[in-house]
Amino acid sequence: MPIQSPLSKTLTLNSKSIQFKLDTRSGLRAVDWKNGLNGDRLALGMGHEFELDFDAAERRLYIEGWRVCASDLKGPKPDSEDGYRNGFFKSEFNDSAWTTAITPSLAWWLNPEEYYWARTHLFLPEDIARQPLTLVLGGFGLWDFRFMRVFLNGNEIAIRETTGRWFEPGRFDIRFGTEAHQYLRFGRDNIITLQLARPIRRTKRLDEMDPMGAHSMPFNTAGLPHFEQYLVVGQDRLTPRFVVTGARLSKRSTKTACTVSLKAVELPLTAKVAYEWTDDGRTLLKKVQVRNTGRKPLRLLEVRLGTYRTTGFVSEGDQGFPVYLNDDRFASIAHPSGWATGQDGQVGLRHYPGCLIPAGKSWTSLTAVLSVAPTGEAKAAFVSHIRSRMRRVVRGHEHPIAIFEPFGAKPDGSFWETEEFLLDNIRRLKEGCQATGAHFDYYSVDFWTHCQGELTDPDPGRFPNGFGPILEALRPMKTRMGLWCDSSYGDWNIGNNPVVAASRVNNPAYPPQSYLGLPLCRAAEPFRSMFTGGFCHQIRNNGVRLVKFDNLWGICHNLGHSHLPGVYSTEAIQSAVIETLQALDKASPEVFIMLYWGYRSPWWLLHGDTLFENGIMMEAATPSARPSLYARDGVTVCLDQGQAWADEIPVLGKESLGVWLSSWPWHSSIGKERWAEGMVMDICRGSLLVQPWSDTKWLTPKERKQFASLLALVR
Question: With a cut of 50, which residues of the chain have pLDDT below it?
Answer without folding.
Answer: 1-6
